[in-house]
Design brief:
CATH topology: Transcription Regulator spoIIAA
CATH class: Alpha Beta
Structural class: alpha/beta
Radius of gyration: 14 Å
Helix content: 40-55%
Order of helices and strands: EEEHEEHEHEH
Strand content: 15-25%
Oligomer: single chain
Distance between the termini: 49 Å
Largest sheet: 5 strands, mixed
CATH superfamily: STAS domain
Number of strands: 7
Shape: globular
Number of domains: 1
Number of helices: 4
């Protein structure tokens, strides 16, 4: 059986590491597990990471992804890093509001604003 490859791209800037999810739908448990492994691998390699998760392509996601985001957030902060989310589709943003995850995550319109938010901190 072939290994599942998460569909993400990783870019490094001076101020942040940007992980973009490239799938429109993140619904299956196997996809969520693959994403978890891929993102955690990036986080583990960079203590004090400034991480931006870019949802530009994502239109649908399962509740398991919300749990994954909380897990990633916990891991990033344990390593004294910071996390930002951006480009969240309006339908998904509504779920964030209903579940009050807008109070948990810093969410920005785009990658540029999310990345800039790191350098604007003292």
């Amino acid at each position: 059986m072939a290994a599942i490859q998460p569909r993400i791209s990783v870019a490094y800037t001076n101020d942040a590491t940007v992980i973009a999810f490239t799938d429109e739908r993140i619904l299956e448990d196997i996809d969520v597990r693959a994403l978890r492994e891929a993102v955690e691998s990036v986080v583990e390699q960079a203590p004090r990471i400034h991480l931006v998760l870019d949802f530009r392509h994502v239109k649908f996601l399962s509740s398991a992804v919300l749990g994954l985001l909380i897990r990633i957030s916990k891991r990033v902060y344990e390593q004294e890093g910071e996390l930002r989310l951006c480009n969240i589709h309006p339908g998904i943003y509504e779920v964030f509001k209903i579940t009050r995850l807008t109070n948990v995550f810093e969410i920005y319109e785009d990658v540029e604003r999310a990345t800039r938010s790191f350098s604007s901190r003292p």
